[in-house]
Amino acid sequence: MVIPCYRVTKHVAAVIAAVPPAVSRIYCVDDGCPEKSGNYVEERTQDPRVRVLYHGANRGVGAAMCTGYRAALADGSDIIIKVDGDGQMDPQDIPKFVDPIVRGLADYTKGNRFFRLADLTSMPLVRLLGNTALSFVSKLSTGYWRLFDPNNGYTAVDSRVLGMLPLESLHEGYFFESDMLFRLNTVRAVVLDIPMKARYGTEVSNVDLPSTAIKFAWLHTANFFKRLFYNYFLRGFSVASVEWLLGPLLIIFGVVFGVTQWIEAAQAGNAATAGTVMLASLPTIVGTQMLLSAIHFDISSEPSIPLVQRLADKMPAPE
User: Bridge-partner residues for 4, per DSSP?
Assistant: First the structure.
């Protein structure tokens, strides 16, 4: 298990104490914490499973996780869990995240705080609205249309799948969880939501919401176009590939042509001809239909067979 540690000295000891015995190793990554959380863990925790890793300067939760991931992979871990050190995630829920991976139903599991309406009563309104908006945008950029709460940091991953991901390319900041989903989709891994209840107490968020929202919008847009290129042009080509190209072009042509002709007609005091109206509206309608068809194809092609299962099927049976 990996616990990124930054300004969590009030909660991290209790989090470690609640980790069930089934977890064999606990990697606490001090990400240049001004509270010296790594030293705090070493002084206050006697758990032999704990290993503290240090960053000389604050690099972000994504960088801390990649450091922990590399250590866990080097030690031969089978399933690697991520739990934040601020006490919002109950370590007793770990079996729920691990079980689908053990049973071969998923390559990666993540928490979903929106599964039960009753669980939302304790969530601050700003987080509720922000996560709802980000969840929709994330569906476009990651290709996991059935998932919700994409920035949930309670996760578990099969180490064989994690080893296929370019850890050096993962975002080092708070976009890490969303970027992880994008990378998982590029290798066609199966991801499952696990219902959970977040616990909100005295913890303080280190996120600057306005600047983070702008940054996330740009990063999601970049990942969306990268995913389309990887899945529809680099690694395969289908009717949907043509629709992703022609749909937006037809819409742009129809709108630009229509607006231009409307302005010219208004300035001349003449009504637009039927042919002009058709030439503007038909490409717009056809382009919209093509774009909707491409999105429908994208939704239906979400990975459903776990990657590790597909790889095992291709391996020759032992003699």
Answer: 29
Token pair listed for 301 = 């092609």
| Amino acid letter, residue 136 | F
Residue 131, H or E segment: helix 125-142
Q: Cα-atom radius of gyration of the chain, to the nearest Å?
A: 24
Beta-bridge partner residues of 2? 27, 82
> Which residue reads 């998923």 in tokens?
106
Dist CA 126 CA 242 (whole Å): 39
Give the pairing type, strands 155-158 and 108-112.
antiparallel
Stated as kind and residue range, the H or E segment containing 26 is strand 26-31
Closest to 194 in 3D by CA, of 103, 104, 108, 96: 96
pLDDT at 318 over 50: no
List pLDDT tens digits, range 152-167. 899 999 999 999 999 9
The type of residue at 154 is Y
d(CA 295, CA 171): 26
Tokens of 33: 């914490």
Which DSSP symbol is given to 270? -
Question: Measured in whole angstroms, how far is the alpha carbon of residue 202 from the centre of its chain?
Answer: 26
Q: Which residue's entry shows tokens 């994008």?
A: 182
pLDDT per residue as tens digits for the range 228-241 = 999 999 988 999 99
pLDDT in tens, 270-285: 877 888 889 999 999 9
Question: Rounded to an integer, what distance in angstroms lies between the CA atom of residue 87 and that of residue 5?
Answer: 11
Taking the C-alpha atoms of residue 144 and residue 240, their distance in angstroms, rounded to an integer, is 17
**pLDDT tens string 241-267:** 999 999 999 999 999 999 999 888 888
Say if residues 1 and 92 touch (Cβ distance below 8 Å): no
Q: Give me the phi and psi of 27, to 5 degrees please.
A: -105, 115
Task: Output the six-digit token pair for 143.
Answer: 């290709």
pLDDT band at 151 (very low <50, low <70, confident <90, very high): confident
